[in-house]
Amino acid sequence: MKYKQIKEKFADEAGKAEKDHEVQMARGDLYKAAKYSIKLHDMMKNISETEGLEGWIQEKITKASDYLNTVFNHFDYKSKFNNSVNFVGETNPLPDMNKYGIYTTKSKDGDFQV
């Protein structure tokens, strides 16, 4: 093997290892976030509404919550609607919308009616 081929193969393997490691790192970060959230929640039980929070503290909590909510909604959407019909004509099974309180029936012409 030439040096360039070895270098490229090594870079490919390193990329695979890093990609595998990203999931574990994210899970570790989520564990820490959950642990700190519980501790902060308990600490804030001693703070009255009249005392309030400094603006920067509230901002950081709101931002962290928003970021986690965004990631959760992304994965939640993918898990529920990955099998839906998309707009480029690919036909996949429709998700079960009954669990969301949306009851659909398929008409004779193939369209869905709510």
Automatic annotation (TrEMBL):
Protein name in the entry: Uncharacterized protein
